[in-house]
Amino acid sequence: MTAPYTSPQLAHDLRALGLRSGDVVLVHSSLRRIGPTTRGPGTVADALRTAVGASGTIVVPTFTAPNSFSSPAYRERVRGLTAEEIEAYRRTMPGFDAATTPSAGMGAVAERVRTTPGARRSGHPQTSLTAWGPLADFITRDHPLDCPLGEDSPLGKLYRLDARILLLGVGFASCTAFHLGEYRSPDPPIRRYDCFVTEGTGADGAPRRRHRWFESVDLDDRDFARLGAWLEDEHTDTGERVVRRGPVGGGIARLLPLADSVDLAVEWFKEHRTAGGGQRR
């Protein structure tokens, strides 16, 4: 059986992959695929910090679905229920609170970063991102409700900061940055999103849950794996491969430039998605 990986071992692998001091890096990860570690997600978080140094900033998605009633997860949950049962279920759904609401389906490493002292989380009730490092406040500040992953979101800031993407034990289907390419596609389809948020307290002092809705791009990640497979064969203007690939712990990791990847995604969408946005849920 493989001995648990230590933080210095994982940091060595991350440096060998190409992470450098001062990097701003958007991390998607699977602790299970990295393999056993000495301190669970804390080992990975410490390795990331070592790899980018005190001057680097680590960003993770801390999305939430349990408070949304326009998400695929919600539609699956209420499938086959009566109107009365759906209403009863909605009454149990939590409101989003940036300070306390856990992320959903983003992995143990993302949750560890979210709860790290000094980390900052953006306030979007569906697609918050959490940043840990010197640029955390700048990245997470002012996340508009109607711009989940577009130009005015933390993702748009990461594009302008020339950030990098680290897929740590996960595939391109998890690559959030591709959504920015959807916003930049010609005439992207628009849809309505609905969710609950926690805002203030009621007369009894209990947290007050409110309904919020907004319209934005109809995001669709179903072809991201195909986009990523194509991207792995692409090269930068300097002749280097866009995607660097290598082992980190017991898993495979990919490191790629966020801005170049988004630009290439826009071109890929133009060719592979039909007019009006192509694949839709």
From TrEMBL:
Pfam families: Antibiotic_NAT. Keywords: Acyltransferase, Transferase. Belongs to the antibiotic N-acetyltransferase family. This is AAC(3) family N-acetyltransferase. It comes from Streptomyces nigra.
